[in-house]
Automatic annotation (TrEMBL):
It comes from Pelagirhabdus alkalitolerans. PANTHER family: BIS(5'-NUCLEOSYL)-TETRAPHOSPHATASE, SYMMETRICAL (PTHR35795:SF1), SLR1885 PROTEIN (PTHR35795). This is bis(5'-nucleosyl)-tetraphosphatase (symmetrical). Its EC number is 3.6.1.41. It catalyses: P(1),P(4)-bis(5'-adenosyl) tetraphosphate + H2O = 2 ADP + 2 H(+). Gene3D superfamilies: Hypothetical protein af1432.
Length: 192
């Protein structure tokens, strides 16, 4: 599936605002993939379909989680976290995309996880820093994105955790695992 075909398949499922966000994520992800020499085709498809289920009905996503091999543990957390895992689960049956690397990048683009691949990090970060996002601290993360992918992802996940704490929201365990993993890696790289 080429870029145009993928965007045409995506378009009916998103509002204009969400579609425009997706195009900005795509452009940002492709810049990062070029800089870090990550597979362009996988980056393109993961970026295009990262929010494939973002605007689907919550009850539809809940039903898919319950009736699939996705962890029901997801249901203990805010439904905003569901769209990545559900999209990853439906990618092959609805779109014919079989790549486990693309599915994993989509699955974890909101929560993150420990030991993320380069593709995982690029999609996570592109979603966070795309030009339409404006909030305190975003410019620092954007500036770091082309210096150190790990450092930029660490800054992003740290900011996300702080935001969730300020809102007194539950924090998905994989998000904490991502924070701890990147913190350790950055400390180890600085001690060498």
């Amino acid at each position: 599936m080429n870029r145009e075909e993928a965007l045409n398949r995506l378009r009916p499922h998103l509002s204009e605002k969400r579609y425009n966000h997706t195009v900005r994520v795509l452009d940002t992800a492709l810049e990062l993939s070029t800089f870090y020499e990550v597979n362009r085709k996988e980056t393109e498809l993961a970026a295009i379909f990262h929010d494939y289920f973002k605007e689907r009905d919550v009850s539809e996503m809940k039903s898919i989680i319950i009736n699939s091999d996705l962890s029901n543990h997801l249901l203990n957390f805010h439904h905003e976290l569901w769209h990545g895992p559900v999209a990853a689960y439906k990618l092959e049956s609805e779109l014919g995309i079989e790549s486990s690397r693309i599915k994993e990048a989509i699955y974890y683009h909101t929560t993150g996880k420990a030991n993320m691949s380069m593709l995982d990090k690029i999609i996570y970060l592109a979603d966070y820093i795309e030009p339409g996002r404006q909030f305190d601290g975003i410019e620092d993360v954007r500036n770091e994105a082309f210096r150190s992918l790990d450092s930029a992802c660490f800054m992003a996940v740290r900011n996300s955790i702080r935001h969730l704490l300020d809102l007194e929201q539950l924090i998905y365990p994989e998000t904490l695992n991502m924070y701890n993993d990147l913190k350790r890696k950055l400390e180890e790289s600085h001690s060498e």
